[in-house]
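Dear H.,

Thanks for agreeing to be a second pair of eyes. The structure we're designing against is below in token form, covering all 225 positions.
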């Protein structure tokens, strides 16, 4: 009987790429995104007056400083950690080191769980969509038109959008997992072949010594009394 893990196992992704190639491309793509975010955050630290975002009192009633120095430092540390994790996954897929792919896979699971919780919160508390729209600044495009839409239609649109994102993320998780299984399987096969070869070399004596070994004496004949 084929297990569900083996049933969904495949060495190709996106209908044309190998899972190793797909994991390498995905890791590089995540590194580029986090590198751009890191550059923006570093620019905000160097010039806080230009990049700091203030919400005026006419929008929320008070002046709120959203991007302060502490939040920027935390976001910078997270971006650096993400670049490290994505770099490890890219290196592990390229050099076929399965252990290096695990942190990136764990990050994908964590991100998928967070998005699932967002979808559940929208289903349980549908009014949160309207509350979120009310918190948007007045200059947000089509804010009034969106708020005038039926709440059930908004919830359905948000759930459909989140569902598409979750499906895509689940597919990427499957690709990375298949890459981990492929690399891990190749490493196990190479180790077994290496050990078998060494055992064979150790157990078999050299040809000259094998010829020099005298044959054993035959057992004594059975004598009837």
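And this is the sequence the design step returned. I haven't edited it by hand at all.
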């Amino acid at each position: 009987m084929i297990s569900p893990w083996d049933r969904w196992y495949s060495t190709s992704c996106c209908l044309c790429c190998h899972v190793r190639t797909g994991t390498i491309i995905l890791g590089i793509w995540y590194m580029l995104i986090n590198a751009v975010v890191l550059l923006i955050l570093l620019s905000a630290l160097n010039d806080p007056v230009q990049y700091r975002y203030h919400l005026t009192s006419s929008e929320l009633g008070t002046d709120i400083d959203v991007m302060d120095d502490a939040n920027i430092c935390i976001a910078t540390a997270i971006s650096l950690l993400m670049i490290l994790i994505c770099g490890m996954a890219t290196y592990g897929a390229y050099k076929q080191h399965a252990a290096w792919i695990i942190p990136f896979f764990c990050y994908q699971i964590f991100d998928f769980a967070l998005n699932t919780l967002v979808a559940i919160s929208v289903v349980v508390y549908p009014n949160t969509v309207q509350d979120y729209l009310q918190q948007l600044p007045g200059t947000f495009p089509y804010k009034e038109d969106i708020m005038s839409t039926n709440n059930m239609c908004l919830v359905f649109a948000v759930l459909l959008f989140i569902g598409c994102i979750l499906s895509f993320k689940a597919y990427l998780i499957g690709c990375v997992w298949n890459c981990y299984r492929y690399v891990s399987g190749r490493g196990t096969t190479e180790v077994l072949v290496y050990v078998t070869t060494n055992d064979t070399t150790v157990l078999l004596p050299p040809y000259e010594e094998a010829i020099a070994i005298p044959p054993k004496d035959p057992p004594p004949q059975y004598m009837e009394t």
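Two observations from my side: Strands lie at 12-13, 17-18, 54-55, 64-65. Residues 53-65, 189-196, 198-210 have pLDDT under 50 and may be disordered.

Warmly,
E.
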